[in-house]
Write a structure and sequence with these properties.
It is a single chain. The protein has 660 residues and is of the alpha/beta class. Among the domains are: 13-95 and 148-186 and 227-333 and 537-599, Alkaline Phosphatase, subunit A, CATH 3.40.720.10; 101-145, no CATH class. The strands form 8 sheets. Strands 7-6-5-8-1-9-26-2-27 form a 9-stranded mixed β-sheet, sandwiched between helices. It has a 6-stranded mixed β-sheet with strand order 14-17-18-21-19-20, with helices on one face. It has a 4-stranded mixed β-sheet with strand order 22-23-10-25. Strand 30 and strand 31 (647-659) form a beta hairpin.
């Protein structure tokens, strides 16, 4: 890791903007100065870590940070998933009050089609990075997919034009009521815009054909699939990502195509007052190959090149002087790994896992399939997935033996088709047993649902989870009262009696463990990937936030805590909009002119939340089955409280276990 930007924290930008809307008498630049509101482009670098900004990989982003405002202590919304943070960007609020829990959550009873035109499976936990699934869920929830108003709706009501571009799911969520131009990996909306692109000679996302009746829109024969993702480079086993690969990153061509459409058509012809451009890099690349891998650096360079294209186009169109560009990530990103004493890092030679190399090796461990862990302990659990074959990421122990043995389904009766597997199928059955637990697997954090809300079963499940080393923090729905060793979901803004899960767990993490030069590892939902997020690790929680333009101070480093929940209120302040139900604040300390509020007006108070009492008398186990000497489980949530004018905002830094 190099660089010039490591000391520049990107986080406080969100705070200033959010405060502006929240504080009495706060209005946009247009109302306070009489000038035209600034155009705002929110450019989301999915999964971008602040410590990945460098002169070598991201010179354009580094330059923007140095000339504009940098937020040194920015916080992703927990859980640190893409769609949870997308909902915060959309509304300035948290998942509990919104009733939206992405990326996977359980919504039995919903129905409809997905972007591919096939029936969406809502019996199992549903994956929400799909515009059609989001429309299905909106209908299921009486057209209140998000239970608070959105920034895009406020902008459109005020007569402003909007554009949402990029990654399927989070881009669409910004404008899920479909009031402006939408162009994502699966569709182009509205119909007039889709036809406009066709007439101009641009190919449409291949699944756009499923958005409209065939008599309204059909794809040209040469349309191709411009937003299709490339294939992962694997080891010789055919399923595990080869962390040494150094080919073009899988999302790069699709990202470049969507940016081209934005720069060539949407920006000059539609001239949106508010844009969200959300692209997959470096997140998808980090998932597949890991943070610090050769592909990781290629992904950063590809994304930075697109930022350079955006800035050059704004200059060419004469828009640079009245456009605020905000660069933010939805979350940080960690490598998936278990404790080094159990699972040392390994070399990769010729597509195969080789000898131990704890100095510059790659992880071969850290995947947890919680449904399987619960089933082995006698619980009835389902996670909505079939058989999994994870030959490497399931873990090679120090002695060289696999943690999970490979088995074979010779006739396909168990897995649906013949083949090797390491864990069996846990699809949700048509008739769900009353004692069942349904798990929505989300990477670094899991949601557990108990349809009958059986308090005794919930307590027994919590007790089991507390006895496992791979569990870092446990939150429970308020209906279950005070369970030792847990905190209520409302303590981290995850309460929602109608839609929320019964148990929320963050997997354990190690913020100091280093792989390929980057700190941060965590246990995560089992898959053949090397990177993950979603946990309450400080690496996942602390993300990138930078801004430059006429609405922001130049060369300003904001030391105050800020969060993704502050982005929408900040943009609302810049555009003269009202978001009265937003829970974030306008980051006024970083704003320019009449909107600015000095740093001296704020007070920051670090504090800690802990369960009222620990869980005691436990028999603790590690992931390999060995015993821990500890017999009690507790955890601590570290946070900061920011105060100004009698108002308070809370920013969560991390939550981790304390075993005794």
């Amino acid at each position: 890791m190099t660089t010039a930007f490591r000391r520049l924290s990107l986080l406080p930008l969100l705070l200033a903007l959010a405060m502006l809307v929240a504080l009495p008498g706060a209005h946009a630049a247009s109302s306070s100065t009489g000038s035209k509101p600034h155009r705002v482009i929110l450019f989301v670098w999915d999964g971008m870590r602040p410590d990945a900004i460098s002169a070598e990989d991201t010179p354009n982003l580094l330059a923007l940070a140095q000339r504009g405002s940098r937020f040194e202590d920015n916080h992703a919304t927990y859980p640190t998933f893409t769609m949870a943070n997308a909902s915060s960007f959309a509304t300035g609020a948290f998942p509990g009050p919104l009733g939206f829990y992405g990326n996977h959550f359980w919504a039995p009873g919903a129905s409809g089609l997905n972007a591919k035109g096939a029936a969406a499976d809502f019996r199992d936990p549903i994956y929400t990075e799909d515009y059609a699934v989001l429309r299905d869920l909106d209908a299921h929830f009486d057209h209140e997919l998000l239970e608070l108003p959105t920034l895009f709706a406020a902008a459109q009501k005020a007569g402003l034009t909007t554009a949402a571009v990029g990654k399927s799911g989070p881009a669409f969520l910004q404008d899920y009521k479909q009031g402006g131009v939408i162009f994502d990996e699966n569709t182009a909306l509205p119909l007039a815009f889709a036809k406009e692109l066709q007439q101009a000679g641009y190919a449409l996302p291949a699944h756009t054909a499923n958005t409209y009746p065939s008599d309204q829109l059909s794809l040209r024969e040469d349309n191709d699939s411009p937003t299709e993702q490339g294939k992962m480079v694997t080891l010789k086993d055919g399923v595990t990502a080869d962390a040494t690969a150094a080919a073009e990153t899988t999302p790069a061509p699709a990202n470049a195509w969507m940016m081209k459409v934005y720069l060539d058509v949407i920006l000059p012809k539609h001239r949106p007052d508010l844009s969200v451009v959300w692209l997959r890099n470096p997140d998808t690349t980090q998932h597949l190959y890991g943070v610090g891998s050769p592909e990781f650096h290629l992904a950063l360079k590809a994304q930075d090149e697109l930022l350079g294209q955006l800035e050059a186009r704004l200059q060419q169109l004469g828009m640079a002087q009245d456009t605020d560009v905000i660069v933010v990530s939805d979350h940080g990103h960690s490598n998936i790994a278990g404790p080094r004493d159990l699972f040392p890092l390994r070399q990769i030679n010729d597509g195969r896992v080789a000898g131990i190399d704890n100095d510059w090796g790659y992880s071969v461990s850290g995947g947890i399939r919680l449904a399987d862990q619960l089933a082995q302990a006698g619980f009835t659990a389902f996670d909505g997935s079939g058989c999994m074959y994870v030959p490497v990421m399931s873990g090679l122990r120090a002695g060289g033996s696999p943690l999970q043995q490979t088995r074979y389904d010779d006739d396909g009766r168990l897995c649906g088709k013949p083949g090797a597997y390491t864990t069996p199928s846990y699809l949700v059955p048509e008739i769900l047993p009353k004692s069942a637990l349904v798990i929505a697997s989300n990477g670094g954090t899991e949601y557990l649902y108990q349809p009958e809300h059986d308090a005794a079963l919930i307590k027994r499940t919590v007790r089991f989870l507390q006895s496992r080393e791979y569990i870092g923090a446990i939150f429970v729905a308020k209906r279950y009262g005070d369970i030792p060793g847990t905190l209520p979901a409302e303590s981290v803004h995850l309460e929602n009696a109608a839609r929320g899960p019964d148990i929320i767990i963050s997997y354990a993490w190690d913020a100091d463990a280093v792989i390929q030069g980057y700190r941060g590892t965590e246990y995560a939902s089992q898959a053949n990937e090397r990177g993950e997020h979603g946990s309450f690790s400080p690496i996942d929680v602390h993300n990138t936030l930078l801004a430059a333009g006429p609405g922001f101070q130049q060369g300003f480093s904001d030391p105050l805590p800020s969060g993704n929940v502050d982005v929408a209120p900040t943009i609302a302040a810049l555009l003269g909009l009202s978001l009265p139900k937003a829970q974030g604040r306008a980051l006024r300390e970083a704003l320019a002119g009449a909107l600015m509020r000095p740093l001296t007006d704020y007070q920051v108070k670090p504090t800690t939340l802990q369960p009222r009492q620990p869980a005691t008398g436990l028999t603790m186990q590690r992931i390999d089955g060995s015993a821990l000497s500890a017999t009690s489980f507790d955890f601590a949530v570290k946070l900061k409280q920011l105060d100004a004018d009698g108002k308070s905002w809370t920013y969560f830094d991390q939550a981790g276990p304390e075993r005794h």
